[in-house]
Specification:
Elements: H1 2-18, E1 25-26, E2 36-38, E3 44-46, E4 54-60, H2 65-80, E5 86-93, H3 97-107, E6 112-116, H4 120-124, E7 132-136, E8 142-147, H5 155-164
Parallel strand pairs: 4-5, 5-6
Antiparallel strand pairs: 1-8, 2-3, 4-7, 7-8
Length: 172
């Protein structure tokens, strides 16, 4: 319980300080860690299965206000890129499914929500402050990252993500 309270405080304090400073930064770290998690849909989702697609991996929790606040912009981003090789994987940090489902019923998001029991994936991805997001290129490499609340559907971000989308074969 103490660990949860510490993480909540870190999320709140860190995100509050970073809301205005959140930037869409080029990734300068290493390769994307493995990601193999079960979704609320009961399916196992592997990041490697999404090779050839651009993927937004977003670490979040229902108790994290900045996480909740950015969800609508993530949904709008997914809608703007509908029909394109783009996927959102929202990784929830160790919360009961009932709490997640209750939140999602109100938030009305359509992207995949994955469960991270024990926060193993969050630790592997070094997602210490929430929300933490990573844009993975079609080649499976992390291209951008954002720490803190962010407007995912702004034109600058949509343009950068669109540049990462693989060309559709047969088009000129």
């Amino acid at each position: 319980m103490i660990a949860v309270l510490r993480l909540a405080a870190l999320c709140w304090l860190g995100a509050a300080a970073l809301v205005d400073a959140a930037e869409f930064k080029l990734w300068k770290g290493g390769p994307a860690p493995a990601l193999v998690l079960t979704g609320l849909d009961g399916r196992v989702h592997r990041l490697s299965d999404y090779r050839g697609r651009v993927v937004l991996v977003n670490f979040w929790a229902t108790w994290c206000e900045p996480c909740r606040d950015e969800m609508p912009s993530i949904q709008r981003l997914e809608q703007k890129l509908a029909g394109r090789p783009f996927t959102v994987l929202a990784v929830n940090l160790d919360e009961p499914e009932s709490r997640i489902r209750k939140f999602l019923a109100r938030a009305k998001v359509e992207f995949a929500v994955l469960l991270d029991p024990g926060r193993r994936a969050a630790r592997a991805w070094d997602a210490r402050i929430l929300p933490a997001s990573y844009v993975i290129g079609a080649d499976g490499r992390i291209r951008y990252h954002v720490v803190g609340e962010f407007e995912w559907d702004n034109e600058h971000v949509v343009s950068r993500i669109t540049e990462l989308l693989p060309a559709v074969r047969g088009r000129r």
